[in-house]
Amino acid sequence: MGRTRAEIAAMAILYIETHLSERIDLEAVAEAAHYSKYHLHHMFTAETGMTLHDYIRRRRLTRAAELLVFSEKPVLDVSLAAGYESQQAFTSIFKAMYKQTPAEYRMGKKFYPLQLKLTLTPSPPAPGQMVPRVTTAREENVADWMKLVLLVVRDFPCFQEKEHLENLKKHIRRNEAFLMWDGELAVGAAAFSRETGAIHFLGVHPQYRNQGVTEAFLNHLSGDGQLSITTFRDGDRADTGQRREYLNLGFLEAELLTEYGYPTQRLILPPGHKALKGGTGV
């Protein structure tokens, strides 16, 4: 029996994770996965929602950010440890993704990841085959929630695990947190304010992006009121497609914001509007 797409992507991830401090040749990644570079690129993107190149870059920059905050290594040494051949190249891409220079980020003394190591589920259902199940999140679901959250931090600039956990517990007490399940696997999570309609968190497992999870959550939360969410601004290189997905689902652009020092934009889903792409009612 042939390997699944998820198993092939997992082999590529294993190789990348063990060679982060080196110059990673995509040919070598493909060889490690026993697949052609062309087909591996397409399978990896389809499975994870990002290209191999983007995954490598995000993982390297996350490692660099960690070193900047938790070590005293000079910036040049940090750039080399993260696999960059020059401090100039490292500084340019770091600022594009983190919105601060490495020196400014170090001064802030607050680490957040662009991308954590992806752990893939071996056999996700084919698009349209999942039977979604939404439940109100309870205290006993916190571990499942956080396991999912750590897979999707790329969509949440300045993510702080401790702060997120504290806010989650508040939403749970108010019955404002929900999980979507595929069997026993949490594949989506959403937390919002019933009073304002503001969605404070909406995360979807990378392998379930095409299963209508986001649409089902929006239709579950909306009722007759307006929903709002903040996401990346137009043109932000750190965005892997989240902004475009919300706009395609009917959100409208609203005011520009700055949250935790990071430039974002508020989007609004008008009252009574149903997310169109999947429209799954749950």
Q: How are the SSEs ordered, and which strands pair?
A:
Blueprint: H1 5-17, H2 26-33, H3 37-48, H4 52-70, H5 75-81, H6 87-98, H7 102-108, E1 133-136, H8 142-149, H9 161-173, E2 177-182, E3 185-192, E4 199-204, H10 213-222, E5 227-232, H11 242-248, E6 252-259, E7 262-269
Antiparallel strand pairs: 1-2, 2-3, 3-4, 5-7, 6-7
Helix pairs in contact: 1-2, 1-3, 4-5
Describe, in plain words, how this protein is organized in 3D:
This protein is an alpha+beta fold and 282 residues long. The protein is 41% helix and 16% strand. It has eleven helices and seven strands. The protein has helices at residues 5-17, 26-33, 37-48, 52-70, 75-81, 87-98, 102-108, 142-149, 161-173, 213-222, 242-248; strands at 133-136, 177-182, 185-192, 199-204, 227-232, 252-259, 262-269. It has a four-stranded antiparallel beta sheet with strand order 1-2-3-4. It has a three-stranded antiparallel beta sheet with strand order 5-7-6. It is globular. The protein starts with a helix and ends in a 13-residue tail after the last strand. The model is unreliable at 277-282 (pLDDT under 50).
